Amino acid sequence: MNQTAIARSWVEHANGHRDFPLQNLPLGIFSRPGQAPRCGVAIGDAILDLEAALAAGVFEGAAKAAVEATRGGALNAFFALGRPARVALRERLQVLLGEHSEHRAVLQAALHPAGECTLHLPARVGDYTDFYVGIEHAKNVGKLFRPDNPLLPNYKHVPIGYHGRASTLRPSGTDVRRPKGQTLPAGQTEPSFGPCARLDYELELGIWIGQGNDMGQPIAIGDAAEHVAGFCLLNDWSARDIQAWEYQPLGPFLSKSFITSVSPWVVTAEALEPFRCAQPARPEGDPQPLSYLLDKRDQAGGAFDIELEVLLLTERMRDEGLPAHRLTLSNTRSMYWTVAQMVAHHSVNGCQLQAGDLFGSGTLSGAVPGSFGSLLEITEGGKQPVQLASGEVRTFLEDGDEIILRARCVRDGVASIGFGECRGTVVGAN
Amino acid sequence: MNQTAIARSWVEHANGHRDFPLQNLPLGIFSRPGQAPRCGVAIGDAILDLEAALAAGVFEGAAKAAVEATRGGALNAFFALGRPARVALRERLQVLLGEHSEHRAVLQAALHPAGECTLHLPARVGDYTDFYVGIEHAKNVGKLFRPDNPLLPNYKHVPIGYHGRASTLRPSGTDVRRPKGQTLPAGQTEPSFGPCARLDYELELGIWIGQGNDMGQPIAIGDAAEHVAGFCLLNDWSARDIQAWEYQPLGPFLSKSFITSVSPWVVTAEALEPFRCAQPARPEGDPQPLSYLLDKRDQAGGAFDIELEVLLLTERMRDEGLPAHRLTLSNTRSMYWTVAQMVAHHSVNGCQLQAGDLFGSGTLSGAVPGSFGSLLEITEGGKQPVQLASGEVRTFLEDGDEIILRARCVRDGVASIGFGECRGTVVGAN
User: Fold this and answer.
1) Same domain for B239 and B283
2) For residue A4, is pLDDT > 70?
3) Which residues of A touch B252 (CB under 8 A)?
4) Do B191 and A258 touch (CB under 8 A)?
5) Which domain holds residue A64?
């Protein structure tokens, strides 16, 4: 990597930071003890308080208007401004936080150690939609039910998605209460009620919608990328036993709605620009997407190369000081549909998207063991336990288990960036 | 009916009004030309402007606090106050609008002809959930696919529901743009894209959530009715051809999310109290609900006796002055699960409900022809056209068709009340 080409920050711990160097600058909503939530920017291990920076007079013009739109404890209004506002803010922040900054002294006073701050959801989510674009996950799960024909006939034509629950979206770090519900125990004909016995994680990319559309006015595929504000990690916690019993004929409901965790930093579309890649070629024989899903620019650069990782830390591992166990190493290149295709499809019927809506990608598994994005896949439905260095085994999650999602973008010649973490610890049912 | 027992209003057109006599007093959000939306109460053919009445000084104590919570153009804060606030407001309004009112003069000035007002959605909907509790609908639809086994094994154990789209909820009177989407034409193996050819209505009861719950704290069945603020009519417009192709494995998505229409008046739980009835006995052999869904008081009086009606008015019928064609005459007694059971089930996994959330009941069909709540059922999937007095036939809806939902509660000795209408006219695809 050509380090000389990579701009440096006067915030020394940002240079070479795993997640938040000067090239990332993700936005989030944070608070300090006793203070109302406000917008901040992650830089190294610190958070720049944008409101304090605004008060210090370091913004003007479009960047100032952008910062003003981040007020109020949620980024919806900022997202609605679209790309020009994000770019204006980003360019100004790169100057302000760059090594040649003329405002270092006043900005230093607006920096807070991230460890002293609480992070919140970055926006008020109007609607949350969960897609199913991870084709290897769809195949792996399909194989459990239909070994000879894992993918349903619509999969390669339709970016499958369904509506999720917005009220239980929570930021990383929120405990995951084991849900109770109805299940049909193996071999029984009558359901039982009790705590979920097959609690799982799902590794997903989260997509924050920027500018929306009016009802009845679809977003064309060529415009769709412009409607995306940024990205996060998303854990679509799933109660597999509840899901199996409830999901016919209308889809998952209580098996998912108890909580969905998201990483708090919005990694902007601009920060991810260097990590765009061509949509992987469809295998020989796969159908051509219908024209409303087809755009040359999207095919050429609408996918992302983002490494994804899932770690498990049990209570015993924490107590014994053992390192977390890596469950999954995967990549967003396994998405069969691009984010632009998801946006175009979602709105093609006239459905209104709004700034601050959230999409989940669906579980992003790879094709080989080690890359599966859920325990359902890793353990083949609970049949192949995972062995841990602590001497424990897992088929599904137990109380005290913590799941940690991470993401990282690496490419020669540019600074690597990451997403921060999406963590959640399972606590016992009430 | 013993008319002498029925209290009268000084608003003369309210007495004996089909929908809005003194005994109903539903709340809604209305606006007059050039004015911001505000809360009103339907009384006969008029709307009482609650803000103007408040300014006139006719409220005090709990009723005043209740009216203050209705400000801001949405009823969420009022819903969150729960039953005591609704009861205080209702009791005061029945005095103020009753024939012995001492405030007739000032209130007269706060009354507006309903026809001169625009009605809006009554609340900002955080999450919208569509249930499937109309068992006859489930059977009728199931028969089209599985003649020998129409109900899935979970139906009589689980109040089936799924998440719907909140952003495209619209008040009665909003045009319904025919959606475009992917369909798999009969006999084809590759999908096509174009305007929906099988556009349908679904007759549903809408349920407005009052007080919510914290995440992780289920609402017990015995408390569940207390969390319901009121009711409306809901048309879950459905694109059957899009639905058939997209819904496996995660449920309906774009086939529903283009628009969902709701009647604008919130008929309160208190106004419906006289029309409660016992939950219809489960047929011999049906399973007992699991204990988290079972409550004696709910079994004894948790169902509702509400007549439901659907009318179709085509463009030609409008042009020729023909009366609307009745497609459906049904009743909420066909609900296999009570509203309390829906609330208890929805939250049993810890899912958070919030004031202003909306539930749909699912299509409320009866068991016999004439009572089916969708064209899918009436026409047996498009095979048996409906003959209209205009000489037209319909299998599914055509551009220019208007669907009108109505509901009415009738019981000896008490004033009948209604819900007003939920209307929508189909307009051609873009």
Assistant:
1) yes
2) no
3) 162, 250-251
4) no
5) 3-120
